[in-house]
Design goal:
The chain is mainly β and 128 residues long. The chain has a 10-stranded antiparallel beta sheet. It starts with 8 loop residues before the first strand and ends with a helix.
Length: 128
């Protein structure tokens, strides 16, 4: 079947993204945390099937000259974060994931790279 494993992030045919938390039957079905809009921002856990998946989402790191609100970044310490607010003079309020989602002020010089997500369509990596 597909080269999808626990922890893979995928794009569904509905446009939603999901993170695989368990693989059933060698890839016949998957339990996934699906990012669905809700009032309380909760994550929906549901079973999805290979035909529901249109792409695997890969993260790549790129150099940057400008950062914007909601950009994901990699710090020089190796930690990941998300820009919450642009403060002043290359200073950003950032939520750092590996620090229990703490909000920390960082300077541009603290940031190694910008993280972007790229869809890798199923047709390009599926086995014939």
């Amino acid at each position: 079947m597909f080269c999808i494993e626990e922890g893979s992030k995928v794009r569904l045919s509905t446009g939603e993204t999901a993170r695989i938390v368990e693989v059933y039957g060698g890839g016949e079905a998957y339990e996934a945390e699906i990012d669905r809009p809700s009032e309380d921002f909760s994550i929906t856990i549901d079973t999805i099937y290979p035909e529901d998946i249109v792409a695997i989402i890969k993260e790549i790191e790129i150099s940057f000259s400008t950062l914007y609100k909601n950009d994901y970044v990699r710090l020089h310490t190796g930690e990941r974060g998300r820009i919450l607010k642009i403060l002043k003079d290359d200073t950003f309020l950032t939520r750092v994931f590996e620090k229990d989602f703490q909000e920390i002020e960082l300077k541009k010089s603290d940031i190694k790279s910008k993280i972007v997500e790229v869809d890798e369509p199923i047709q390009e990596w599926a086995l014939a």
